[in-house]
Every structure is written in C-alpha cells, then in structure tokens.
Amino acid sequence: MKKILISTALLAGVLSYAGGFRVSLQGVRQLAMAHTSAHAEDASVTFFNPAGMSFIPSKLSIVAGGFGASNTVTFQNLNTLTSTETDNPLGTPIYAAIAFKPIEKLSIGFSFSTPFGSTIQYPYDWEGREMVQKLELKAFYFQPMVSYKMADWLAFGASYIYAKGQVNWDKAVTQFGGTVNINDDKASGHGFGFGFYFRPDPKLDVSIAYRSPVDMKAKKGTATFTVPAQSTVNTLLGLNSAGQDGFTATLPLVAEYTMGLTYKVTPKWLISADFNYHGWERYSQLTLDFANAPIGNQADPTVLVAPKNFRNSKTVRLGTEYAFTNMIFGRLGAYYDESPYSDEHFIPETPSFNSYVFTGGLGFKMNKFGVDLAGGYVMPQSRDVKNKTLGFYGQAKAKAFYFGLGLSYNAF
C-alpha cells in the first residue's frame, strides 16, 4: 500500500511539463506568424537563435512582452459517464530581451523568458485525485549570448542557459484520508544553445538552431502529508513531526532542433516556415530519492523509479506577414504540434494533445518604437486514455487560446 500511495504520479513530469511541453510564447510577432523563428528585425530573435542578433538592423534593440494563456481540460470516464473539467487560472508568460552591437561584426545579448509554466486545477474530489488535484509550475530561462558575423551573409551565435524552476503539487492520499503537497522552489539546471543564421539573398533568411538538454536538479524538495492519523503516518513513512520528508530528483529536459526560413515574396509580403524536433525519448523514466519514506523497490526502498515512455515529437509551422503601410502589418499563421506520448501513457497532471493551432496579429511601427498584438486558437485532438500503469481510462479533450502584447525599441 505504501508504494501505491506515491508511485501513481508523485513527480511524473513535474518539471518535464515546464521544459518538455514547451508553450510557444516567446515573441508576440513570432506567435502571430505561427511562432516561426527566422525573423531578425529585433531582439526577440535572441530566444530562438542567438546568431540572428547579427542581422538586426539596429545597433541597440530592446523588446518586452507578455501573454495570456487560457486552457481547459475535460476528462470523461466512459464506463460511468462521469465528466470532470479543470478550472485553470489564466497563465501569464512574459519575456524580455536586449541585443547590442559594440563593434560592427560582434553582437551581445541577453534573453529572459518564462517559456514553461502553467496551473492545472481539478476538483479536489475527482476520480483522479490520487494523481493530481492541483499543479502549479513555473520555469525561468536566463540566456546571455554572443553572435559573430562571419560574412555578410552568415553569422554564428551561442548562448548559455540557466534555468530555474518551481513546482507546487497537491494530490490525494486516499489510503490515509488526506493529501500530500509536493513542493520545490529551487530546482535548477544548465544548458547551452547555438545556431547559424544565413541571408544568402536579401529576400531569404534561414535559421538553424540547437538548444541542449537541461537536467533540472531538485535537491531540496519537500513532501508534506496532511492526514487525520498524522502521528501514525509519520511513523509509518519516516516523516518528521510536521509530516514532511525530503526528496531529490533529476528531471531530464530534452534537446530541441529548429530549422526556419523566411522568404520575401514582394517587398511587402513575406512567408515563413519552421520545423522543430524535440528529442523526448530521453525522458524514459523519472527517479526519485526520498530521505526516509520506504516507498521504492525492495533493493532500495527509498528510491522510486516511475516509467514515462516519452517519444520524440515534432512541430511544423507556417506563417505570413503583409505590410499594409510602412507602419501597419498584418500577420497570420498555422502549425501542427505533436504530443510526446501515446494514449497508453497519458497522464492527467501534464495533459498533452496533438494540436492544430491558428494564429494572427497586427504590428505597428512608429519611428524607433513598435507595438505588436497577437492571438492564437488551439484545437487539441481528443485522446482515448489507456494508461494501464495508472489504471486511468477514458476520453480526454481540451481547448485553449492565447493572446499577447509586445513592445520594442530599436536605436539605429
């Protein structure tokens, strides 16, 4: 019974949700064009490809923006026909970046973003309460970077990634009639990125970029049990007087490969396309090391290994922009985003769907300043949930939309 208590979903994907199911909200202009990457008009390119800094037309570029992200997940048990809908608050990812050319061929920059993070809230008495009741996730990326223009048509760039993560998770402990809270606000990891940016013709931009895996290390996590027979459970699981136990874990976040291009059909009209590849096979399992709680295997009772069985996934994007005037721009886009796991491995705390997304927006330029507006409508495809490991079966559906506001300043 002790093993069932936690192994159903203790940390299944807590920070992988923040690093693997990447929310594509790092540039408002980019989102309006399906979040394509081969755009070097301002410092928002820094997140996608540091080499793009070399082709920003201004010496100094500063951008900042924010988004609203709304999503709802509905799960139905096909045997009982019981339906459960999440009540998630509005997510508010933000980003900011700066790029500067100290000399003609050298560019330096810095990008801050919250690319991964959301809150999912189920009713506390729903049938999957032992897996999740509420899950709050945040992740922050800090990326200093440099780019060197090797030729008029070619630049190379590289960045260092420092990632900081937080998680706050409630789930039921029905065996003891209470709940457990999983909390860690100090998980961190390191990585790098690099890329090449090409402009072989004034009409064509090509971006090739790589973002490395990041091992998010949770070294001081706390599991807090709140149950009626607190002292008995404390003794049974080796908890302290506050009903707490510590844990450590290393959560593998995977590599991302991106190839994008933008072609100017006319001076006023451009078309962009991207292909993203995510190496999610790296996330095959999650290992948790508890300080005292004997909830693992017989060989090492405090170590719990939970299978994840993720697979590599891809995203295909297509976007366009048209300049109505020198000051007003219209944008549209669409993309297909593939889930990194099958129906047999669906997990409600980090629900993922194969999705079609349609985007659009407007841009306004006023001398050195710019304002961008964007929105996106997501059409997730329903899933037949067949997770034998969790004993979780039924049908899952979702709906979501995004909107964003971005500001830019470019000093020529």
Short structural summary:
By secondary structure, the chain is mainly beta. Helix content is 7%, strand content 57%.
Which key features would you list for this structure?
disordered N terminus; 57% strand; 14-stranded antiparallel beta barrel; mainly beta
Query: Which blocks of ≥5 consecutive residues have pLDDT under 50?
Result: 1-20
Helix content estimate: under 10%
Order of helices and strands: HHHHEEEEEEEEEEHEEEEEEEEEEE
Classification by helices and strands = mainly beta
Q: In whole angstroms, how far apart are the ends?
A: 67 Å
Report what the structure shows.
The protein is mainly beta. It is built from five helices and 21 strands. A 14-stranded antiparallel beta barrel has the order 1-3-4-6-7-8-9-12-13-16-17-18-19-21. The longest helix is centred in the middle third of the chain and has 8 residues, at 230-237. It is elongated. The chain starts with a helix and ends with a strand. Mean pLDDT is 88; it is low at 1-20.
